[in-house]
Amino acid sequence: MKIADKTVVQMHYTLTSDEGKVIDSSEGREPLQYIQGAHMIVVGLEKAMVGHDVGDKFDVKVIPSEGYGEYNEEMTQEVPLDVFQGVDKVVEGMMFYAQTPAGPMPIRVKSVSEKTAVIDANHELAGKNLNFAIEVVSVREATEEELNPQGHHCCCGGKGDSEGCCGGKGEGNGECKCGEDGECECGGQGNKENCDGNGGCGCPNHDKHHGK
């Protein structure tokens, strides 16, 4: 069976930078599983998967506009160190979550000086090409339950408070905003494994949909 919309795909992947540095890989782990057409992976890779079959091995270069977006300097800001309450020492590379109308947003500390720090709301891969080496492990038709999960699933795939996410519609205790149909507000559907555990959506395409 070839990959098409509404198929469940398992694949192994290795993601590298243009310089050849390995950014992420499924090597030594279970293959990544997603539903084609459900926006669970970046747009450029999802497009490239169409038509491939089990056993296919191929390379894909995803440009920023179809990955995590272009880098936006306006999404950086210099702030005083005292905004980091409860943190003994702020160092470059630290990650925090800022509360926004769209829910928690990951913020990275870009640089630190004596009294201030520059924070960056861009995705760490914004503005970069994504180079994937792909191996298709399995392809099958998605079940009706997989395509239309029962109940109100928030974007991390949890059902209500018991999964540490939102309690159905709207904002829950994790402030993971669900739409009426339970989909992530950014338009993508993640799964329980993607939940960041901090109330964040955890949708793989969250940053792309929010223009980060």
CATH architecture of the largest domain: Roll
- From the alpha-carbon coordinates, what is the Rg to the nearest angstrom? 18 Å
Task: Name the helix and strand elements from N-terminus to C-terminus, one letter apiece.
Answer: EEEHEEEEEEHH
Q: Number of DSSP strands? A: 9
Unreliable residue runs: 151-212
Estimated structural class: mainly beta
C-alpha termini separation: 35 Å
Q: Count every helix, treating DSSP H or I runs of 4 or more residues as helices.
A: 3
Q: In CATH, what is the class of the largest domain?
A: Alpha Beta
Largest sheet: 5 strands, antiparallel
Number of domains: 3
Shape estimate: elongated
Helix fraction by DSSP (H/I, runs of at least 4): under 10%
What share of the residues does DSSP label as strand, in percent?
A: 25-35%
According to CATH, the fold-level topology of the largest domain is Chitinase A, domain 3
Arithmetic mean pLDDT? 79
